[in-house]
Fold each of these.
Amino acid sequence: MPRLIDHDQRRAELAEACWRVIAERGVGAVSVRTVAAEAGVSVGSLRHVLPTKGGLLAAAMRLCLERATARFAAHSPDLRTRADAINWLTEMLPLDAERRLEMTIHLALAAEAAGHPELASLRAAPDDAVRSGCEVVLRTCAAAGLLRDGLDLDAETTLLHVLLDGLAFHLLGPAARLSDDAARAILDAHLAARWA
Amino acid sequence: MPRLIDHDQRRAELAEACWRVIAERGVGAVSVRTVAAEAGVSVGSLRHVLPTKGGLLAAAMRLCLERATARFAAHSPDLRTRADAINWLTEMLPLDAERRLEMTIHLALAAEAAGHPELASLRAAPDDAVRSGCEVVLRTCAAAGLLRDGLDLDAETTLLHVLLDGLAFHLLGPAARLSDDAARAILDAHLAARWA
DNA sequence: CGCAACGTAGCACGACCGTACTACCATGAG
DNA sequence: CTCATGGTAGTACGGTCGTGCTACGTTGCG
């Protein structure tokens, strides 16, 4: 038997090369050729692991989801103070280059979903993850008696999710219209108004 | 002198055809050929008005901006009650098919800006417009004594803008995760908390 | 009427696209 | 050692891409 490669790791490398192409030249510049060149392999070799362009785009989008969920899983859900809650929530915000890239790529690919059906199913997953993240934070805090009484947790989850997405959106783009600290401050003020 | 056409109107028609292609097949499907076919003209004819692909994309993006600003201008800035303010603000939210399409296209094109420099300069304009819209609403209400005292209007503008973008984001996509009424209710609650 | 202009259509070119297919190489089980 | 096997590279094909260019109506001023 010849040398075996880890297909999953390979897929991730190629997906990362795809990220780079998207970030530097836009989704329109993605082709099996450009991505293979970016990854430093031949087209034939790329297609041995990712046979079609749709599969390549799907792998790139799946990588966004994997990275995000891995980050969430690594963070302990230890919520005793408001600062803990803020830290947990800011984990879902694009506050560093890595997460900014991740979200930019996700947005770009989501916009292309109309032309590539395999992307459509991957579109909603991170959104659901963020919502359930908001829900966990609020429910945990509420259960610990950290929040005011009489809050509609469902409505508060939606509101927090909306706020988080708005912040994320403003944190993106070359001209950062919102500083990291300002985003954190807005989140803190929002939570403070609901704190016990 | 032969028949003259209105170049601006023509550009708008072609840009609209470009919108349709983007909405149905993604930005990746945009080419001078597909858009010309969608508009029902020949490639040569299209290129007589929009000589390059970059120009075509830019025209499509500019149309987003024009439509939005036209809508804003049509709405009178008559702010006497909270309902007026809500109405003014919801004007900037994608609450009908037209505005949803408009924003979807804008997002898709903004994501492609990396590969088409002419789009980059058009990216920030609507964002600025929305921010100044928020500012006008808040300042007008504050000047009329409708808002609580001691509000930091600058920070409130940013917060309102973030909230509006978050709502807009949630109003998009095939699976509408937020109903029109829910969005309006969130906006109303936000303003109510700041009302005199 | 005639002709200069403007709009329209279409072809040609070189480049790049996605994909299929084949030849080659390195490897490790037997 | 040998050889089947999985990985890599390269070529080829039919098609579409952006763009330059030319030829052809069509129109309304002089």
Amino acid sequence: MKLTTKSRYGTRLMIDLAEHYSEGPVSIGSIAERQGISVKYLEQIIVLLKKAGFIKSTRGPKGGHILAMPPEEIKMGEVLAALEDGLDVSGCVHDPETCDRAEDCKARDLWEVATSAMYNELNSLKLSEMIQ
Amino acid sequence: MKLTTKSRYGTRLMIDLAEHYSEGPVSIGSIAERQGISVKYLEQIIVLLKKAGFIKSTRGPKGGHILAMPPEEIKMGEVLAALEDGLDVSGCVHDPETCDRAEDCKARDLWEVATSAMYNELNSLKLSEMIQ
DNA sequence: CTAATCCCTACCACTTTACTATGAAATAAA
DNA sequence: TTTATTTCATAGTAAAGTGGTAGGGATTAG
């Protein structure tokens, strides 16, 4: 039940972007330096957050990355969901057909409870609340 | 963020034991048959639940496994914690010293929130509530 | 004594994780 | 137009974790 480093680094990346939101595009190099994470690894992680629409980027000198919307509009649960490919604690929560017992499975009910408890709590927090 | 099959199978195992609590010790063979899980794999999983004190066993013919206490006294969060070796979504929640940034890490605060949201919700459910 | 049952340890194929590496494409500034 | 700087795309890889299987020993009811 551990988050991957992709998720942990990705979250720190988002917080870093929020902290520099007013300064315009920030290069991966500077984020990597501040966060102590390799540039190449961050490049891969940022792709996930771009796909989810949280970040927009510009190439070339003076280019970089910036949040696609103000930090107040970004829910932490949705950020995590983008990084983790959903927060479901079991595949059967989202895809019941992957298990032939899913229809009347008491365990599955539990996975739904656990998943939504975490998701709701995380979504009650905005990225803006993560800085200070 | 997916639970391992150990946790999912282990939970189903506990529910199965609860359903047969009044019948005395149940053999792994019969659980395996009902749940469609191999005997050998269940044997490994049950060890974790025995260590945590949820199950007691007797050897020999007519032997088997039974809950060490009534299903009403068993919290699902603690069952999962035993199977998953803690429910922390990141190692730094329980062991801050494993990350030198933990002391003032905004991400870590988030992992604490997510972990306790899930743990508290799961602990509000007793094993007895999982059957019917 | 025998059969049923739990207990213990080792092994293994496969997948995932957590990166590193290489280089191409875009673009601002000289 | 050249150059330096940045993102973008893809491939490779060592180590760890997952999800089992296998074999045999210990215990005990009948």
